[in-house]
Amino acid sequence: MSKDYLKSRIGIIGGNYLRNSEILKNLKPRIVSTGYGRVFYYKTKNYFLITRYTLENLPPHKINHKANIFAFKNFGVKYIVSFNSVGSLKKEIKPGQILVVSDYIDLNPPTFYDKIVKHITPEISPKLSEIIISILRKLKIGFPRKGIYFQTKGPRLETKAEINLIKNFADVVGMTMASEATLAKELDLEYAAICFVDNYANGITKKPLSQREIEKNQEKNIDKIERIILEILR
Ligand code: HPA
Q1: Whose CA is nearest to atom 5 of ligand 1?
Q2: Is 173 in contact with 60 (CB distance < 8 Å)?
Q3: Ligand 1 binding pocket includes 201 (Cβ within 6 Å)
Q4: Residue 130 C-alpha to ligand 1 middle, in angstroms?
Q5: Mean pLDDT, residues 167-178 taken together
């Protein structure tokens, strides 16, 4: 499988730290109205980029996932690559490492199908994920490993007891990716996710966890994210 797979329109979605990136420096944020609400996005010749927290910097549980994913569909995007900040559920997955999602657990999934009965079978795109892994290998950005993502609701972090439970079933924890993956599949879009491990989840180590620690590590990822995006689009 080669990167030619990505010759069609690509959608990129990530956190607000992307706004400080060189890639977006000369681009103006645009707004589009969808039936689900407004979406802020950036556009170039070959990709659309959405910062999922919008210009208002919404908390994770207030993100309008349906509007974001629907906008990609309207733009004619077929493949979505997402960038995510996560906490590690395993000692051996260390902050600073990168993980490509192979599957996910979401006990409260969203849906576009409120009026008709339609059961999709959720799936992270294996083909798109393999392309992402080969890109990470080529760029020598960490040693990419695959793993399972567990979605919690937020905005609060998890209790130690919650982490103790979920660490048996997943590798990383975050508040957004699984919603996007489900909605993308409902609209027949291929979705793959790159996770930046920004902290150990609460209680995995003795060190107390704080929002500041997570944000400090997120800032360090910008440069890697830019290199990955440029390589995807090359
Ligand atoms: N928990 C939930 N979401 C997160 C975390 C975490 O520890 N780190 C980054 N996003």
Answers
A1: 87
A2: no
A3: yes
A4: 25
A5: 98
* Element containing residue 88 per DSSP (H, E): strand 79-88
Query: How many Cα atoms occupy the beta-carbon half-sphere of 217 within 13 Å?
Result: 20
Question: Per-residue pLDDT for 2 more than 80?
Answer: no
In angstroms, what is the span from residue 132 Cα to ligand 1's centroid? 22
pTM across the whole model: 0.95
Q: Is 170 in the pocket of ligand 1 (CB under 6 A)?
A: no
Q: How far is the CA of 135 from the centre of ligand 1 (A)?
A: 25
Q: Return mean pLDDT, the chain.
A: 93
For each of the domains in the chain, give its residue range(s) and CATH number, in order of start. Answer: 3-82+98-152+173-194+219-233 (3.40.50.1580)
pLDDT tens for residues 95-104? Answer: 999 999 999 9
Alpha-carbon torsion (136, 141, 147, 148), positive or negative: negative
Which pLDDT score is estimated for 54?
85
Planar angle of CA 173, 187, 110, nearest 5 degrees:
45
217 C-beta closer than 6 A to ligand 1: no
Q: How far is the CA of 68 from the centre of ligand 1 (A)?
A: 21
Tens digit of each residue's pLDDT (9 = 90 or more) over 105-141: 999 999 999 999 999 999 999 999 999 999 999 999 8
CA separation for the pair 109, 216 (Å, rounded):
29
